[in-house]
Amino acid sequence: MTSTRSGVGEATQPSVEEIQRAVALAVRAPSIHNTQPWRFVLTADALELWADRQRQLAAVDPDGWALLISCGGALYLAGLGLSAEGWRTTTERLPDSTRPDLLARLHFDGRQPVDGNVDEAVAAAGRRRTERRPFRPGVVSTDLLHVLRAGVDDPSLYASLVLRADDRLNLAVAMSWADDLETNDPAYRAELATWVRPDAAAAGEGISPTAVPRTSPGQPRHTDVPVRDFAAGDPTSTAIRGGQVIDEQPAYVVLFSLDDDDAARLRAGEAYARLSVDAERLGLATSAMTQALDLPGVRTRVRTLMTWLDHPQMILRVGWPPAVDPAPRTPRRPVAAVLTTTRSNLA
Ligand SMILES: Cc1cc2nc3c(=O)[nH]c(=O)nc-3n(C[C@H](O)[C@H](O)[C@H](O)COP(=O)(O)O)c2cc1C
Predict the structure, then answer these.
(1) DSSP single-letter state for residue 55
(2) Is the minimum distance from the CB of 32 to ligand 1 under 6 angstroms?
């Protein structure tokens, strides 16, 4: 089913309001510690995406890998937002080697009818969130996971499932080892403490402590591969570790790229955002768990341990959302804080 938006056939460029709505969707992208390391510039003929290096995290993201994944998500959602406004776009990635922080240009290629699929994806993008609470028990069928994998339609990327018991064990070992390495680093803990903040909603950035489940001595978390411990260093919280009793059965989806450069990471970020939106449409919940990928040296070792031939860019936990209220929606900075223009008419 398709529909047209008002003004079809008239304008050759999106209006400022259309751009603002597209950017409002783009900023819903997942980002490391909800740092939102991006900015957008509306030029005469394109919407540009720039890396905001001031928001790159020194301890958890020394080589800017997470920044690029995060920005890739914003790029995917900006394109989706423009489609929802009735604009066809083409994406030019890393268009200027002398300006590496100019990550992409979305060019406007004229108007097109809006597919009902696009509207559904936009609605799901508004609902999606990182679900860190234990999933509802219940296996996600391999068929459903294959539907999700098929959404990765970029030939330079693919998503794989970690299914074999020995691979899951190796993943658990790798994740625990990487997690220990990070949580024992005072700089990592200090950085985490500034981004997990009670005033996240007012600040429009960071992670509210309510979005991060804590364990207590009487209620350990039962899972096989440890999730990131956002309370690292807090003596009142028991570390979240794999336990003897496993009562959630997440699927683990790893997103691989054939190359390992900035373009591959940007594309992987686009695919991650799309996967999380598609999962939401299928009624599934996702959370990134990237302790094993944050640091370049650890990434390399984990790749060897897992005998992965290609380059892991994202590890996702996928499962059925808990049968309680949805997790609180994480805040975002306002569009005005991330969008500027070289056009003269941006309000
Ligand atoms: C590169 C990258 C790595 C991430 N790693 C983790 C992680 O290890 N654990 C986790 O719980 N969330 C992780 N996240 C999810 C972010 O914390 C989350 O996207 C952000 O807080 C915004 O919340 P939302 O996804 O609910 O909108 C990661 C996100 C990105 C883009």
Answers:
(1) G
(2) yes
Pocket test for ligand 1, best of 287, 293, 311, 329 (most atoms within 8 A of CB): 287
Query: What is the tally of helices (H) and strands (E) in the chain?
Result: 11, 11
Mutate to test the pocket of ligand 1, among 27, 32, 196, 227 (most ligand atoms within 8 A of CB): 32
What is this structure's pTM? 0.92
> 9-37 pLDDT, tens per residue?
468 899 999 999 999 999 999 999 999 99
pLDDT digits (tens, 9 = 90+) for 81-116: 999 999 999 999 999 999 999 999 999 999 999 999
d(CA 93, CA 131): 30
Q: Which pair of structure tokens corresponds to residue 110?
A: 């004229």
- For ligand 1, pick from 25, 31, 329 the residue to mutate: most ligand atoms within 8 Å of CB: 31
- Tell which atom from ligand 1 comes closest to the C-alpha of 70: 31
128 CA to middle of ligand 1, Å?
A: 12
Calculate ∠ Cα 241-173-279, nearest 5°.
Answer: 75
Helices 262-281 and 65-84: crossing angle, nearest 10°? 50
Report the separation in Å between the CA atom of 158 and the middle of ligand 1, taken as the mean of its atom positions.
20
Check if 276 has its Cβ closer than 6 Å to any atom of ligand 1. Answer: no
- Can you tell me which residue has the tokens 């598609």? 278
**Domains of the chain, CATH where assigned:** 2-128+333-341 (3.40.109.10), 142-319 (3.40.109.10)
pLDDT at 337 over 80: yes
Torsion sign, CA atoms 127, 130, 132, 138? positive
User: Which pLDDT score, from 0 to 100, does residue 346 have?
Assistant: 53
Helices (H), the chain: 16-26, 65-84, 116-127, 142-150, 165-183, 186-195, 200-203, 262-281, 291-294, 296-305, 335-338
Establish whether residue 287 lines the binding site of ligand 1, counting it when its CB lies within 6 angstroms of any ligand atom. yes
Distance 145 CA to ligand 1 centre (A): 20
Instruction: Give the pLDDT confidence of 153-206 residue by residue, as tens digits.
Output: 999 999 999 999 899 999 999 999 999 999 999 999 999 999 999 999 999 999
